[in-house]
Automatic annotation (TrEMBL), chains A, B:
Positions of the Adenine deaminase C-terminal domain: 400-568
UniProt-listed Pfam families: Adenine_deam_C, Amidohydro_1
Protein EC: 3.5.4.2
Annotated protein name in UniProt: Adenine deaminase
Length: 575, 575
């Protein structure tokens, strides 16, 4: 801020000079004072300079709408929407979100610092205010075949940059309370840089939660019970109440939220698909749920605005008051929270649900062509079995948790054989970053693929190539299709590729709009259920995405082989 | 934080290693969750590591007392207690204050950066956590004869230092909303350093308050009505509720404070004499008043702790929770707030109202010998008058505001003459920093000094030497006494110095304890009323201290002459 601009801002505030923009006839919601005042909001140089009788170069009629500070997603992996930050902005800004705190750990697992830089660059082309955390756990576990590794030196260097807000969610709880040196180095780097550290502590309690907390961790977004919320607030942490695609925790958590403790609560989406955001909303959905559940509207709005800003020390953000950045949303009511007009830094950027800014969706070569696999043959896909008793990964409806069950299957030449009488299919995970040839093959049930294969390169957290199918030919074809496309989601049926959503950016993001991604994924999902017979209680792609994440109970598959999460060790498929 | 210490802290939290100290059997007050839980607090390396079943090298019985996070004075001029930061710590820590945000603008007016450095050094010798703001208005107004000037370059350089928390109270409101370049340079420097700026905006409202606010100012401690509190909260500011010696605003302001908006309120003392602190308390007094007035105890405690910490971004401060610094106070009850035990960084530093640490009260030559005056004779003390009609500064009971009245006085040789029949005395202000010989002489009423003189070198904000008396001989003697002592407070009666409290540090602070200062000042005050006949509704020294501050209505005296605050111009004594 130079004195010339400061002087001009002050003169506009005092009424000596006209504002850039005055939004007249608003009902201004102040979640601190818990008041709604009628008035005009004057803006100059991106800042709100005053509420009152002001004149501006441009005057906009608020038509008596409620003016609320722009909503903040306190924790999001933008990549989960399978679109670029730019495209994400095009989708969420018209819903009233003006700021996100993003942890780009998905792309970092594929492309490391280059991926992070792509996200920052893409976000800069959008009015969306995206603040980035340095992903703390790339890869998620030591033995993961990710495309990149962010060691403690890289993290320290990232945290030294002004553009990096803090340290992203520390998923390695055992690394914290087990005081692993690399983990402590990352935590120390953030502590010494004076930057916040996001937590990830599902189920943690008592002394282990204390130990995790004193590691410098200041937030948690993984609560699934009111007790967990209370336990974290009592430890001086912020709780980020999540409403995502898979994890829809918000309503369950609200009984723990009071008018007093809500100052330490904020809202987040974490992982939310484009389709879910377009159908249900983004942070405005969290606010709507909270208000509907009986949270007073001021506390609900505070959680969507100023609380998140305070949590992440976002300057001049989160209130409609002089001196704050002019991120303003006009709503018709305080129940449905359908944004009618959205201003960022005083610029009208969305109206009636539509973005008013251009979107380039520019792609950078540094993040494309990320699917590099060694040649795969049907032979490599074999699952050796000593007997007909086999371990099978059993999927559950609407859940990411799997069970390990033993089933009697057909065996031919010492390996699993497909048998239409046995409802067990094959799951294959191929290392796809460095063409190491590492491949994991195992058996699943309850997925339900028939006469075909389903494949994706979105597979948490390392984003290897995962395929499920009931015959090796279609599995191979699905692999080849995604190799050819440079990543994406695909369906193969009876020897033919039925449809593909290409995700050329790191194999996890599209270069098209969120609307097109959503349409494409919806279409594929419908086909997966109708044509390939995937269990209707299971999301065909998301379920595959999480079958490779070796930190969710109870049994998962990695390119290194079948992994027992409970014993935290590899195993084979013999039952 | 290095990884070795972090590792140890985590291991203590997880119960693997013993704590340094465990305070057992406490009722722990959490103002965020608004709960009181029984338990033990474990401390390691200065941090709270957990609440629960812990063991420590040392275990202390809390005897069922309430454990509250250490109190924070959000805005204080330590110099007003007329003792060093070290001595101040000795006084306030046993009362439950563990942290202060100090604006050393009194000593800065006398000794500039040297004075500030002395304060920082003295505070470092105390367990008290004193954070210092860079004084923004030295001198208070351009034409003041202060001992030092802090221009915008000095301020920018100070704000670049890690030890400087922000920019101290911006008293020059007209300079802000009038966009004076030097003022804007100071504000910009703080904004660009990302540091908070304290406000001082008595009575400001509407667009001028907006203009002041957008100058980057984030707090105000000068509210005297609930409306002023609400107006500032609506502008996204913090309000610091003051209970000082002269300004006892707290109770009047509390009707504006709600459970929701209190998160943006904190407590301060601003200017509070040692005697008042010892008689009534420090921040514990604010808390007591608030609770007595019906503020819920959790909000009251939050205002004394976490809110102030958030306002000034004090790291890991303000809650009893793992990861926070172990600044803990044990109280018998939550009504009287008499601190029984006080811990700072986990060390027991006070018990039963007594400090448990040594106090050196070390003095630095850079801040002594500050009284430098040109020779003064009786002739110089004359007040020229054209007629017997004279302007007289009229003092009010219990107020710093003065009126300008016209009185008929005795005149001899074209100058004011003392006349026992006319209750008008003389007020003299001598520039005492650079021996410039500048001297202001004027007339006062309602002060009531008889057969003597009262003098002080504590005189806001420039701290020149001010004397009131009813004869020139005693006035001269009082001047000489304070010159000889290097500053202080003195009483002269019938040609003799009755008693003096020496304030050798910058002429405003003692090198003894706060207790001795308080005793000395109490004794002098008693003598002033009893022996010299000073009006009992007027504080003999504080009233003099403010008679030279040309920013308080309506008429004041500076070494440049009589000053009409309303017209903001100099005048003479002719009525």
């Amino acid at each position: 801020m130079n004195t010339r601009k400061l002087s001009h801002i002050i003169k506009v505030a005092s009424g000596e000079l006209p504002a850039d923009i005055v939004i007249r006839n608003c009902r201004i919601v102040d979640p601190i004072s818990q008041t709604i005042s009628e008035g005009s909001i004057a803006v100059y140089g991106g800042f709100i300079v005053g509420i009152g009788d002001y004149h501006g170069e441009k005057e906009i009629d608020g038509e008596g709408r409620y003016a609320v500070s722009g909503f903040i997603d306190a924790h999001v992996h933008i990549e989960s929407a399978m679109c670029t930050p730019e495209a994400y902005g095009e989708m969420v800004i018209p819903l009233g979100t003006t700021t996100v705190v993003a942890d780009p750990h998905e792309i970092a697992n594929v492309k490391g610092i280059d991926g992070l830089q792509f996200m920052i660059n893409s976000a800069r082309r959008s009015p969306l205010k995206a603040h980035f955390m340095a992903p703390s756990c790339v890869p998620a576990v030591d033995f993961e075949n990710s495309g990149a590794v962010l060691d403690s030196e890289s993290i320290e260097s990232l945290l030294g940059e002004k553009s990096i807000l803090g340290l992203g969610e520390m998923m390695n709880g055992p690394g914290v309370y087990g005081t692993q040196e690399q983990v402590l180095e990352k935590l120390s780097a953030a502590i010494n840089a004076g930057k916040p550290i996001d937590g990830h502590a599902p189920g943690l309690s008592g002394k282990l939660l204390n130990a995790y907390r004193v590691g410098g961790i200041t937030t948690d977004h993984e609560c699934t019970t009111p007790e967990e919320v209370r336990a974290r607030l009592k430890r001086g942490m912020y709780v980020l109440l999540r409403q995502g695609s898979a994890a829809q925790d918000l309503e369950k958590l609200l009984p723990a939220v009071t008018k007093a403790n809500s100052r330490r609560c904020a809202f987040c989406s974490d992982d939310k698909h484009a389709g879910d955001i377009l159908r249900h909303g983004h942070i405005n959905h969290n606010v709507k749920i909270a208000v509907k559940a009986g949270v007073d509207v001021f506390s609900a709005i505070a959680m969507a605005t100023i609380n998140a800003a305070e949590c992440y020390r976002l300057k001049n953000t989160g209130l409609i008051a002089p001196g704050y950045l002019a991120d303003i949303v006009l709503f018709d009511d305080l129940e449905n929270f359908d944004a009618q007009m959205v201003f960022i830094n005083g610029q009208l950027v969305a109206q009636g649900g539509k973005a008013l800014f251009p979107v380039s969706n520019r792609v950078d070569k540094a993040v494309t062509h990320s699917v590099n696999i060694a040649p795969v043959t049907e032979k490599i896909l074999q699952v050796p079995l000593k007997t007909s008793q086999a371990k099978v990964i059993s999927l559950h409806s609407h859940s990411l948790v799997t069970d390990c069950v033993t089933r009697t299957v057909a065996v031919k030449n010492g390996a699993f054989a497909f048998d239409s009488a046995v409802p067990v299919q094959k799951l294959v995970v191929v290392e796809r970053h460095r063409a190491t040839g590492k491949i994991g093959c195992a058996l699943i049930e309850n997925y339900g693929v028939t006469e075909g294969a389903v494949a994706t390169t979105v597979a948490h957290d390392s984003h290897n190539l995962v395929v499920a199918g009931d015959n090796d030919r279609d599995i191979l074809l699905a692999l080849q299709e995604l190799e050819h496309q440079g990543g994406g989601l695909t369906l193969v049926h009876r020897g033919k590729v039925v449809d593909t959503v290409a995700l050329p950016i790191a194999g996890i993001m599209s270069d098209t709009s969120a609307f097109e991604v959503s349409k494409g994924v919806d279409h594929l999902t419908e086909l997966a259920h109708n044509l390939l017979g995937i269990n209707r209680n299971i999301d065909p792609f998301m379920s595959l995405s999480f079958l490779c994440l070796p930190v969710i109970p109870h049994i998962k598959l990695t390119p290194e082989g079948l992994f027992n999460v409970d014993s935290f060790s590899f195993t084979d498929c013999n039952g």
